[in-house]
# Entry
Amino acid sequence: MTVTYIQHVPTAGKIGAFFRLLFMWKGGVVKGIWRDLVMYCILYAAISVGYRYGISQDEKMKLNFERVCVYFRRNGDYIPLSFILGFYVTQVVSRWWGQFTTLAWPDTLAMNLLSYLPGNGKPKKIRRLVIRWANLANILTLRLMSTEITRRFPTYDHLVEAGLLTEKELEKLDKIIKTTDALYPIHWVPLQWGQIELRKAKEEGHISSDLVFTKLQESLQDLEMKNKSLLGYGWMNIPLVYTQLVTIAVHVYFLVSLLGRQYLTPTRYIGANGDFIKVPPDTPESVNLVGHDDSVLDFYIPFFTIMQFIFYFGWLKVAEILINPFGDDDDDFDVNYIIDRNFQTSYLMVDGDDSADTDNDLEDDTYGNKIPPTTLPHTVESFKFKEPPPAMPTDNFVVPEDNPTHEGKVDPSFLFLPDRKLSIKSCSLPWYNRRASLRSCGRRGLQRRKQNLHFQRSISGVAGEKNISPMIVIHDSNPNIEMKQKNFTLPSSEMETYTSKEEEE
# Structure
């Protein structure tokens, strides 16, 4: 779900390269603070109207109100807002990046397995078995951190149905959960299974040396350390008192500014014989009794106050979004994409020649000898929040052979096409839209084909579960697969909602 935007600023040579980013809604500052800004402006306007047409009718009440406003104006800047908020956001951003770098990726393990445990037959089954357990360990960790993954795999039965876990393995996990009374994470269990299986492979002679065996064990240990560190981020947060302090400081500062930034028209007086006589506003040498600066101009719209509100509340909104990057905000990590990518890519890495016979001593792989699909199944609730894959900076960049040229140079206006439709090498739709190419259909054809690029879904229920959301299997490779149903009825209205949501995206 992270908003990628650097593809819109490929070079800084143009004037105002960042200006186009100001009109982006998703993940933008306007989307983040517009509700707060509207509420603040309404309160400011209500106080201003109340002062001009209500309080000013009573001289004593008017005098007291003006004194309060002047007091707030003079002392409001004593709140060290820039220092408190700036230091807090720095800590949050550092923590946010640390969580991303802590995410476990099975690529190194997969490459080491193929290099150090070569061969078909049983070695291949061991490679696929170990890499599936590595992905399972990562998903068990993310289930404790991410609402997206919890919605997608709310129970261990959903993991079985997705092919990440077998029934025998589920029984082993259940025993450990009962032993620990479900008090402690069990993400380490699949990695321990992998260590045991590698030790058996070493004893059987499939691993050539102790050095190679140690390298494979270290790869599994690295995954366990990253998963453990990620859980540490979920356990140890930034101290609550600091978060409360920043929240109070920002809101109190702008509550004070609601009165301190008001335009005032205090009554003018002239001293005479030890007393003050009320005079018209423009009387020379007259003074006001509240200490107001009469040089302030009357602007109905407090422009600089609004700008200050946007900057500080936008700053606070950054902290609110990044403090937990495993939620549903625009800039949170797209962990669904990460686990889908890791699962299929790791299988591709460890896969070998399919011509060799398989060994029946090991339990059959959940996907046989086939490569897993591009995405793992979703529940109905999880599919509502499914996001497209992230964009890369050069997704829109293409130089077709038939581009118009001028004096041997390509016209720059033909280098980019909107909406991420083309990639630089294949001249085809990137990732999830790679079924149409520039030469085969052109720009208009891309628009026509876009309607046919949505994922087809099929529904399957979990046996024995009545209140658990069913799984949605994504058939990306075959657009002709029709939705099949098992022990579950999905209302047609919901299917139309999902389809319309994909078309909007």
In short: Residues 354-358, 412-469, 474-502 have pLDDT under 50 and may be disordered. The chain has 16 helices and eight strands. The radius of gyration is 31 Å. Residues 210-235 form the longest helix (26 residues).
